[in-house]
Automatic annotation (TrEMBL):
Record-annotated Peptidase A1 domain positions: 1-268
Family: Belongs to the peptidase A1 family.
PROSITE patterns referenced in this protein's UniProt entry, alphabetically: PEPTIDASE_A1
Pfam family, one: Asp
Top-level taxon of the source organism: Eukaryota
Gene Ontology biological process terms from the UniProt entry: proteolysis
Protein species of origin: Dentiscutata erythropus
Protein name as it appears in the record: 14016_t:CDS:1
GO MF, one annotated term: aspartic-type endopeptidase activity
Length: 268
């Protein structure tokens, strides 16, 4: 998804990730960022480096605090920054984001510069609402089912033309009570080892393989894999491509929920 950061704006292409909560893009100081667009704070008139994600002002003689964010598929060393963000034609001022100094993220496609985390407590949409740019803290997706299909994202509402029937809602329990992680950052879905094995045992002539394309030899690979957290699922794009999904904060931003509906297969 294309976004712009700074004044004047600097362009980036980011992966939308419902399984994490921060927006990050590479900084000019970033190592292992070959071929990616990099954020140059020296060219941004609005740039403000801060020591914590709590919007404390940066004190010039104290360097920004560098921390490391962990992901299931890698890690990012970063500084916290504030500047303008443009997303879908909407301009958010004083938006918190991360300028990454080092990226160790093998799972990140070369097509993306960084990651736009849309998960639990994401600050961008709180800012959009508080600045009067959207009416609801809501983001909705229809992911393309193949390379020829278009993906749709709606910010601040949902698009009824893209789904049919009722939306089924589930309350989000928070990071300490995970039963299933709805994660658009993963192509596959993951289940507990025992659950995955029991499901695949019901498929005639199934066999386990190491995750490697050269071992498939024309065989079909399952849309989910073993290796998820004990007792929990990670529902990636193999699931999300088959539903319309809505993520919402409500009741004065104290509650989170996710809704799913059947796709309108006649929509673009």
């Amino acid at each position: 998804m294309p976004i712009k950061i700074g004044d004047p704006p600097q362009a980036f292409n980011v992966m939308l990730d419902t399984g994490s909560g921060y927006l990050w893009i590479p900084a000019t100081s970033c190592s292992r960022c070959k071929g990616k667009n990099k954020y140059d704070a020296s060219k941004d008139k609005k740039s403000a480096c801060i020591r914590t994600p709590l919007h404390n002002p940066y004190i010039p003689h104290i360097p920004c605090k560098i921390k490391t964010s962990g992901y299931i598929g890698g890690s990012v060393s970063r500084n916290y920054n504030l500047s303008d963000l443009i997303i879908g034609g909407l301009k958010v001022t004083n938006q918190l984001f991360i300028a990454a100094n080092n990226i160790n993220f093998p799972e990140l496609s070369s097509a993306y510069d960084g990651i736009f985390g849309l998960g639990y407590g994401q600050q961008t949409f709180i800012s959009l609402k508080s600045q009067g740019l959207i009416d609801f803290i809501q983001i909705a997706f229809k992911f393309g089912r193949d390379r020829e299909s278009k993906s749709h994202i709606t910010v601040g509402d949902n698009n009824p033309s893209l789904f049919v029937g009722k939306v089924t809602w589930s309350n989000a329990l928070g990071p300490k009570n995970i039963r299933a992680l709805i994660d658009s950052g993963y192509s596959y879905s993951f289940a507990d080892n025992n659950i995955a094995k029991n499901i695949y045992k019901k498929i005639p002539n199934y066999k386990d393989i190491v995750r490697s394309n050269d071992q498939l030899n024309g065989l079909c690979a399952g849309g989910f894999q073993s290796g998820g957290p004990s007792g929990a699922w990670i529902l990636g794009l193999t699931f999300l491509k088959n539903v319309y999904s809505i993520f919402e904060q409500y009741q004065n931003r104290n509650r989170f929920r996710v809704g799913f509906a059947s796709l309108n297969m006649n929509s673009e």
